[in-house]
Amino acid sequence: MAISKVERLMNLVICLLSTRQYLTAERIRESVAGYEDSASDEAFSRMFERDKNELRDLGVPLETGQISRFSTVEGYRINRDRYELPDIDLASDEAASVAVAVQLWESPELTSAAQSAMLKLRAAGVQVDTENSPAAVTAVPSRSRGSEPALGKLLAAIDAGRSVRFSHRSTPAAPFRERTVEPWGVVTHSGRWYLVGHDTERDAVRTFRLSRIGDDVVAFGPVGSVRKPDDVDLGVIVARAAASGDVAGSADVWVSEGRGLELRRLGTEVETRDLVGRRGSVVRIPVRSWEWIARVVAGHGADAIVLSPTELRDIVVGTLSESAHRAPTDAVSPGSSS
């Protein structure tokens, strides 16, 4: 499967960050996955020129200079001092967004491409900074990677300009249904990945959360048959859909007295009730994302219990069960003496 432009650009950044030397265009062509299939020198030159301009437009400090004082050949590198961020403090939601990006960066697909590029550079005699190299990461466990298989296939289809078919469900408890879409792009919003495109069956622009798309993405149709309209801003579409999305339903959650302030802010207290010998309140919460509210409830442990709907309760139970399964086997159980 051909490497998408997004992957090629990331591979290029990884390569140029992994050495302090200037690398010639020819060495970059040999080392970076995505360039080796160029049909001719002219095709590579055009592709590389577009990629350089795109990186600069994104704010990446790409520099040019002579590869040595004895040569007039021009090379390229990224100014790491200008590229790297100083120490920063992140709020919890910002840290969550960064964690999503890290999970994607550390995926086996990107890691293998990066490590391949590093091997090629070393074989060519280029000094690689292994200590600070972005390729010196390991893949995260498969259970925490989410929708990577779907993401890779969608990016390839978008890059090729082809339509896609995939299974999708509107909520975690809903059954999968096949969708046919002309994909325009994949963007992030509030730490989540979304596909934006034209749903051919509904003849309308739609957004699809990647975590609800199955791994059965299939591209079809001629290459170049799908193109994003010039006047479309994908980020605006996703932001509007997230801001004005219809409420999917409501949930009644019992919250222990003096606890669950986040849940109380999200909903309205409808009654007081004692449960399992503890005083608390029933909070009615409007829900747009069942997955998100399930994580919030699960995060409060025994201080929050879903009363309805049963589908949400099942998601919370599943989340807690998975967390317990991941816990170390020698962890001290609640109530036991240490």
UniProtKB/TrEMBL annotation:
Residues 251-321 form the WCX domain. Residues 150-214 form the WYL domain. The keyword Signal does not apply. GO terms for cellular component: proteasome complex. Keywords: Proteasome. It holds the Pfam family WCX. The keyword Acetylation does not apply. It comes from the Bacteria. InterPro entries: CBASS_pafABC_assoc_protein (IPR051534), WCX_dom (IPR057727), WYL_dom (IPR026881). PANTHER family: PROTEIN PAFB, PTHR34580. This is Proteasome accessory factor B. It comes from Rhodococcoides corynebacterioides. The lineage of its organism: Bacteria, Bacillati, Actinomycetota, Actinomycetes, Mycobacteriales.
